[in-house]
Design goal:
By secondary structure, this protein is an alpha/beta fold. The protein is built from 9 helices and 5 strands. The chain has a 5-stranded parallel beta sheet, with no helix packed on it. The protein is globular and about 60 Å long. It starts with a helix and ends in a 7-residue tail after the last strand.
C-alpha cells in the first residue's frame, strides 16, 4: 500500500481546508497504519473537535486506543463508555420484537462482517457457516465488504441469504434486520484494514435478542 503518498495527500487537503474533519480522520487511519500512534490519536481527536457528531472518527479513535501502551484498562473502558454516551444512546431502539414465538421453527442467525473476503478471518468463518445444521438454522450474512473477491463468492455459497450492507445507513440496517426477523446476530470486527467498517452504531441498535462478537472478543445480550 502507498501509505506515505496517501498521508501526503491528506496533509495537502488539510492545508487547503483546515476545517476538513474527514481529512483528519483519514489522516489518522494512515498514521495508525504507519505505526505513528500518537499522531494518529491526535488526528482523530482533531476530527472529533471539528465535527462533534463524527461517530466514525470516534470509532477509529477507540480502535487505535487498544494499541496505546500508556493507557490503563480502566481508561480504555471509560473511553468506550464515553462513545456510548455520545452516540450509542442516540440510535433508535426497537420497543418490541415482532418475530414468531415458535420454538419449533428454524433459528435465524445473522453474521455481519467486513471480512467476508480474502482475509485471515475468512479461515475461521468458513467452517462456522458450512457446519450449521440447516434443518435447525437459517443463515443470513450481511457483507460490509468494499471489494468482494473469489473468497466472498465462496463464503456466499454457505449462506441461505446474503445481503450487501455497503452504503446502507444505520437506520437502513435496522430496517433490514427488523424486516428479516433475524433473532441472533454475530459480528466479526478486527484488523486495521477493517477499522472503517466497524459499524459501532449499528451494534448499538441491538435489534437481535442475542448477539455476540467473535475473533477479538465477545458479548451476549
Amino acid at each position: 500500500m502507498r501509505l506515505g503518498e496517501a498521508l501526503a495527500s491528506y496533509n495537502r487537503a488539510i492545508a487547503l481546508k483546515p476545517g476538513y474533519a474527514e481529512a483528519y480522520d483519514n489522516r489518522g487511519v494512515m498514521l495508525a497504519e504507519l505505526m505513528r500512534l500518537d499522531e494518529a490519536l491526535a488526528s482523530y481527536e482533531r476530527a472529533i473537535a471539528l465535527k462533534p457528531d463524527f461517530a466514525e472518527a470516534h470509532s477509529n479513535l477507540l480502535f487505535s486506543l487498544n494499541y496505546d501502551s500508556k493507557l490503563t484498562p480502566d481508561r480504555l473502558f471509560e473511553a468506550h463508555l464515553e462513545w456510548n454516551e455520545r452516540y450509542g444512546r442516540r440510535v433508535p431502539h426497537p420497543v418490541a420484537h415482532a418475530n414468531e414465538r415458535d420454538a419449533g421453527r428454524r433459528l435465524r442467525i445473522g453474521y455481519l462482517s467486513p471480512d467476508f473476503r480474502s482475509h485471515s478471518v475468512a479461515h475461521f468463518v468458513e467452517p462456522l457457516l458450512k457446519n450449521h445444521n440447516r434443518q435447525a438454522v437459517e443463515v443470513f450474512c450481511y457483507a460490509e465488504v468494499i471489494r468482494p473477491d473469489a473468497v466472498t463468492g465462496h463464503l456466499q455459497s454457505f449462506a441461505d441469504h446474503w445481503r450487501v450492507t455497503i452504503g446502507l445507513s444505520d437506520n437502513e440496517l435496522l430496517s433490514l434486520w427488523t424486516w428479516q426477523g433475524t433473532r441472533g446476530t454475530t459480528g466479526f470486527r478486527y484488523l486495521p484494514a477493517s477499522r472503517l467498517r466497524s459499524r459501532l452504531r449499528g451494534w448499538a441498535i441491538q435489534i437481535p435478542r442475542v448477539w455476540t462478537r467473535w475473533i477479538t472478543g465477545w458479548w451476549m445480550r
